[in-house]
Design a protein that fits this description.
single chain, alpha/beta, 9-stranded mixed sheet, 10 helices, 29% strand
C-alpha cells in the first residue's frame, strides 16, 4: 500500500519547499518536488496550505504517571495513547519521577511496551530520582546491556526530593552506563532531572572535568532558574545537549529562554525540548509544604512550536529542537523526513495545529480526529 502526500511544504526539518512525500508500509520512499500518480497508490492526501514535519520525539514523559507529593491521591494517572497521538508524538521516552515507591521500572517497561504494540515507538530510562537507582534486573549494567529499549538511567540532582548522591556515586553510575552502552551499541545516557537548589549542574560539570565524555550526560529542566540556565549555556558551549521543558517550571517563557541561548551563541542543534508530560508540577511554600499541584501537558512541545517561531527562531531550527536534535541527543534514528526513514509524520494546519499523524506509516489521526485509542480509553 502506497500513500502519497501532495502539495505540502515539507520541513525535513530543513525547509524543502513544496514537495510530495510517498509512503510505503512503514517507510518514506521518496520526498520530491513532484511524484506522479501510479497504479500502486492507494490514497492521495492533498496537503495544500499545510506543513509536513517529522513526528515529535519527546524524551521525557511520565508514562505511568508522576506526583505523590501531596499524598496518594495526588499521584497523576498513566498517560493515554490518545493524548500522545493528539500531541503529535510518534516516539516517546518514559521516565519515573519522585515516586519510585509505589511505581517501578517494571511498571514503566510494561507501559512502554504497550505503546509499542499500539503503534508508537517507545523507549525508557531505568532509575528514578533516588540513588541507588531502582532497576529491572537489579543492575544498571544489566538493564542497559540486555534490555534494548532502555537508553539510560534517570536520577535527580539539586532537588530536595532527590537523594543527594556523592560525586563518587555519580562517577560509578556513569561508568556503569558507559561500559554497558559500549557492549550494547548504545549512546548511553545519565538523564538528569535538575531541581532549583543552588548547586545546579555543578556535579555534572565536575564529571566532565574528570574526563567523562559529555555525550553521556543529558540534563533536563535546565530553564528552571536563571543561574541554572547560565550553567546550561556553558555546558552546551562545551559540546553537551541541553533540554528545555515545555510544560513546567521556568524563570521566563520557554521561547524567550531558548532565544537567549541562541543569542549567547549556543548552537541550535544542541538544544532539545521535552514536555515532562503527565508529570506533577507541585508548588511548595517557604516551609516546603505543597500549596498546589498540576500536571504538565503532554502536548507542551506542539503548543510551544508557534511561540518559538513568533519570537523569530527560524522554522527549521525550531522543528529540529522537537525532532532531529532529540534523536541525536538520544542516539536513536528518526526525526527526519527522507527516503528510507521510518514514516513518522505530522501534518500541521496553517495555525500549526495537528491535522494528520502517521506513525511507522500507519494513520493515527485524520483531520484532527484520533483513529486509534488504547484498549481502556
Amino acid at each position: 500500500m502506497f500513500t502519497l502526500l501532495t502539495n505540502a511544504r515539507v520541513f525535513s526539518p530543513e525547509d524543502l519547499g513544496l514537495c510530495s512525500l510517498l509512503i510505503h508500509a512503514d517507510r518514506i520512499v521518496a520526498v520530491e518536488k513532484d511524484i506522479s500518480l501510479f497504479d500502486g497508490v492507494n490514497e492521495v492526501i492533498d496537503c495544500r496550505g499545510k506543513w509536513v514535519i517529522p513526528g515529535i520525539i519527546d524524551q521525557h514523559v511520565h508514562l505511568t504517571g508522576g506526583g505523590g507529593e501531596a499524598g496518594f491521591a495526588s499521584r497523576t494517572p498513566a498517560v493515554k495513547l490518545r493524548d500522545l497521538i493528539q500531541a503529535g508524538i510518534t516516539t516517546v521516552v518514559g521516565v519515573l519521577g519522585t515516586d519510585a515507591i509505589s511505581r517501578s521500572p517494571k511498571d514503566l517497561y510494561a507501559k512502554m511496551q504497550s505503546l509499542n504494540l499500539e503503534g508508537l515507538r517507545a523507549f525508557m530510562h531505568t532509575g528514578a530520582y533516588a540513588v541507588p537507582s531502582p532497576t529491572i534486573t537489579r543492575s544498571i549494567r544489566d538493564d542497559m546491556a540486555f534490555i534494548p529499549a532502555i537508553l539510560g538511567v534517570k536520577i535527580a540532582l539539586a532537588d530536595h526530593r532527590g537523594s543527594y548522591p556523592s560525586f563518587q556515586e555519580l562517577l560509578r553510575i556513569v561508568s556503569d552506563i558507559r561500559v554497558a552502552s559500549l557492549l550494547a551499541g548504545k549512546k548511553g545516557l545519565l538523564h538528569v532531572h535538575l531541581g532549583n537548589l543552588p548547586e545546579g549542574m555543578s556535579q555534572l560539570i565536575e564529571l566532565c572535568d574528570a574526563g567523562i565524555p559529555i555525550h553521556h550526560i543529558s540534563p533536563t529542566h535546565v530553564a528552571r532558574t536563571e543561574p541554572l540556565f547560565e550553567q546550561a549555556i556553558a555546558f552546551a558551549h562545551r559540546g553537551g545537549h541541553i533540554d528545555v521543558t515545555s510544560g513546567g517550571s521556568r524563570f521566563m517563557p520557554q521561547e524567550q529562554a531558548i532565544l537567549h541561548a541562541l543569542e549567547a551563541q549556543v548552537p541550535a542543534e544542541r538544544i532539545t525540548i521535552s514536555s515532562d508530560g503527565n508529570g506533577s508540577v507541585p508548588r511548595f511554600n517557604a516551609q516546603g509544604i505543597v500549596e498546589g499541584l498540576s500536571a504538565a501537558p503532554v502536548a507542551g512541545n506542539l503548543n510551544l512550536l508557534p511561540r518559538l517561531i513568533d519570537v523569530g527562531i527560524p522554522v527549521p531550527q525550531a522543528i529540529a529542537m522537537l525532532t532531529a536534535n532529540v534523536a541525536r541527543s538520544l542516539g536513536i534514528s528518526g526525526g527526519m523526513l527522507c527516503a528510507g526513514e521510518r514514516a513518522d509524520i505530522c501534518v500541521l494546519n496553517d495555525d500549526l495545529s495537528l491535522a494528520h499523524l502517521f506513525a511507522a506509516g500507519k494513520p493515527l489521526l485524520r483531520d484532527g480526529e484520533c483513529l486509534v485509542t488504547g484498549n481502556f480509553e
